[in-house]
Structures are given as C-alpha cells and as structure tokens.
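ok trying this again, last paste got cut off
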Amino acid sequence: MKTRGRIRAALGVSLATTLLAACGTGTGSGDDEVAAPKVGDFTGRGPISFVSGKDTTGTTPELIKQWNEQHPDQKVSFVELPEEADQQRQQYIQNAETKSDAYDVISVDVVWTSEFAAHRWIEPLPESEFGTDKMLDPVVEAAQYRGQLYGVPNYTDAGLLYHRTDLMKKAGFDKPPETWDEMREQCEEILTLPEAKGMSCYAGQFEKYEGLTVNFAESVQSAGGSIVGEDGKPALDTPEAKEGFSNLVDGFSSGMIAKEAITYEEETGRQAFQKGDLIFHRQWPYQYSMANANDGSSKVAGKFDVAPLPGVDGPGSSSLGGWNLAVSSFAKNKATALDFIKYMTTEQMQRDKLIDDGYAPSYAGLYEDKELIEEYPYLPELKESILTAEPRPRVVRYGDTTAAIQDEAYDALTGEKSAEDALSSLQSRLSGLVNGP
C-alpha cells in the first residue's frame, strides 16, 4: 500500500478549515416542487457514520482515524457497502424509506442526485460554505437539483481510452484513434504482430450493472445522439443513437471487443489491461497509476497512454462520473456531518487523493498545477474529457431508467436482440418512466 504522508500532512489544515466554517442556514420561497427548498439548520453534534462503497485504497479508515483523534466526542464510524453501485443505491433507499438514522454522511453517485433530492432523502446544503466556485462547472451541476446543492463533490470521473503505445508504435501508428473505424483499423494491424499474440482489441464495462449504462450512454452520445433530449423525452429513435450503439453490438459480434468483456466491471477490466490482454481499454482515470506501478503488478507500466474516447466522426464524449458527499435527511448530528464533509472535500485533500489513489479532483486549479502535470501528464486530457462529458439521464426515477437500459443493452450485446430492436424497446420503456409520475 502507498504511503499516505501527503494526506496526513494536510489533515491539520483541513481540520482547521472545517472548524472555522460556520454552519449557516438559507431561505427559500414558493412550492418546494418548483423552487429550491430551504436550507435547514445543521444542528446536533456527536457520533456519526460515514457510509460509502467498499474502499479498495485503504485511505478512508486512515482519514477517519485522524478525524476521530481530534474529535473524541464526534467520532465517525465507517460503514462499507458493496463495491457495486447498484447495490449501494438499494441499501441507501432501504435506509431512507424506513427513515433510519443509521446513515449520516453518505457517498452518492452523481446520477442519484435528482432521485435522492426529489424524495427528500438528502438535505439541501449551504453552498456558500464550500469551495464550489473553484470547482469545474459540470461537476458542481451534477451535485445540484433544481439549482440547489445537495452534495459536495468528493471526486469526479470521466472515461478515457487507454492504449498500448508500444504496440501502436511497432505497427506504425503515432497517435491514438479518434473514431471507432480508426480503432478497428489499428487493431487489425497491431494484432498481426507477434507481440500481440493472444490479445484482444478493446474492452469496457459490459456486465449487467451501472457500468453498462455508462458505456451505452457513451456510445450513443459519441455519435451525436442522446438518451433523453432537451425536451425531457426519450430520444433513442434517431439514426445517431442507432449508429453509436451499433458500434458496441457489432464490436461483440465481430470479435473486436473481447468476448470476456461481457462480464467485465471496472476491476476485471483493469486486471486484464494490466496483464497485457488488451490493446485499447475504456476506463476511469484511477487505472492510470495502478497500471503504471513498477512493483511487478502491471506488465504494461510505461507502455501506455490515455486519450479521449473514440466517436463516430471524431473524439467521443464520456459519461460524467464521480461521487458526492451528502447529509442524510434522517441524521441526528447534522452539524458534525456538515463539518466532516468540509474536512473530506478541501482542495488540498483532493490533491492528495489524486497523488495517493488516482482520484480525479473536482477543483479546476489542480488541472493547471505544473507539478501535478509533470507527474500525471494525462491531466489536460482528463480535464477536457470532464468538460465535454455528459451526465446520464438526470431523472427522478433513475433506478428504473438504468435498469431498463441495462436490460435492453445487454440483450443486444449478447445477441438476443438487434441494436435497432433494443433501442426501439428501450424508447418505449423510457417513455413510461421519464415522463411518468
């Protein structure tokens, strides 16, 4: 495990900043369904829980330990949920529906914001007490519902195309593909190399879970289409949507996409890339540091780079990812919860999380930091990917929406349906969800 010295060194500053910040209130007017709801009094101090998905870095327990040493009367207990986002969401909903105070600060996927806020499962936050004015605009917008902040960005995410530069150079390619056709052509040449024996061209996250929704959305929007149009209605009955999704479906049927990728989630795909099984891989930025490790865990260290995802006529568009920290509406010690979020989301803390664990920061200035760029040369590409990323459908019934997407996309990728039939079915299903009550 990496040394966490940078995080520990920043703790004193983070804690001081937290204690100096006041817990404010806000006002609102009008119908709560139209206007932003009032920001309530964040009162109550004492023990709280921090609930998040499985921590694969080892960082969170250390941060909590440091907090607890300096807040003996406001200790934080760490509740780990399963690694899969779908399972996390289900446990959050079960807790909220029973109005349980077992969860206080919760880590929320950006796509859950509208659903959780509309049901009033999370509290509207006093935005002036956080550094959102220094963060990237799309990241902050993804933490809002009806213009009101409901979560503080802990880190953000955007998909990147990891590519084997050593094999590309060997095959005579000096730059990564910008389109699916170019990637296909490069693969055909690279796979003829003796060094590429047994490799597959491309993989993403295609298991039937939230990652499939991400990859589906990226295929559609990278062709100029969208899942939900500007009018709020499903928009999958377009040539652009069909062309984009057909790239994935045809990729599986032609063998361009590794057949094993139908079972890939983030970690299984990462392991395949690091073992040298893939030429190209769609993945989040956290993979960069792990794949470049020189401890023997990666066979591709120093042999790859990243680029924007491919599109139809040029570079494509990523789905905006990331996680925000929110306060459960049923928490008792909300003042402590608010302070803990401030402590966890400072610019210095996000800088350290980038260095130690590869998490993409929310603060715009960190992408201009020369020292960071020298150590992480992919930061300019990552910033551009974030700024051009599009959110998955921001709908109240997101759980039903993503389940429908996964059903239809999976059927097409496994050959049960054509891309056209899957999109037609999905268009019908979403019409009853997106425009429903």
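PB: full thing came through this time. Residues 1-35 have pLDDT under 50 and may be disordered.
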